[in-house]
Every structure is written in C-alpha cells, then in structure tokens.
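Lay summary. Proteins are chains of building blocks that fold into shapes, and those shapes determine what they do. In this project we predict the shape from the chain. Here is one chain we studied, written as its sequence of building blocks.
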Amino acid sequence: VQLVESGGGLVQAGGSLRLSCAASGSTFSINVMGWYRQAPGKQRELVASISSGGGSTNYADSVKGRFTISRDNAKNTMYLQMNSLKPEDTAVYYCNFVGLLRLAQYEFWGQGTQVTVSS
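And here is the predicted shape, written in a compact code that computers can read:
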C-alpha cells in the first residue's frame, strides 16, 4: 500500500488546513486509517483514526472539537480537516494504514507532511 500525504503548510494560529492522504495498491477490505503527528523532540502520537466504512472515528483529546477525520473510499483518500489551529499543533503529520487479513495486521506509513502554526 502506498500512501501520499498533501496539504501541509504554514498557517497562522486560528487558521485552518486540510490534509489529504491518497492510498493506492490496497486489497484490504477491512482496514483502519489514521493520522499521526510528531513534533520535534516528541514521540509520534495518534491524532485521529477512522474505520473502513467511516462509521467509527477516534480523536486525541487535544484535537477534539477542532479536527475532523473523514474518508472517501471511492477516491481511496482520507482527509483531516484542521480548524482553530494552535502553535502546539505544529508537527510532521503522517498518514497510517492498517490492513487486516486472516487475523494478521499489515501496517503502512506515508512520508509525512509538515504543518507549521505560527503564533
């Protein structure tokens, strides 16, 4: 599975960005996709995740009410709408894909996209 992120950039505090993750090569009908982020000197953390059909989502407490994860399976693309951005949201954002097949999990990562929020 190949994952390509886009949409990162520089934005002022209070602004918005939308990240996209285009997936290709997947044959996993059951999967979970998510966004992680890693700030300098910090561990990578889960931002949000979404189930195969989009009916189940999960968010980190720090982004609840500000970020929205979604996916368009017809376009094989996942999105992260980020509103009310804060300087502490500055990080490299990574797209993650976990496919489930015969009780085994297969995990894939994108190359990351930089998000910088200025104060």
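What the prediction tells us: The longest strand covers residues 91-101.
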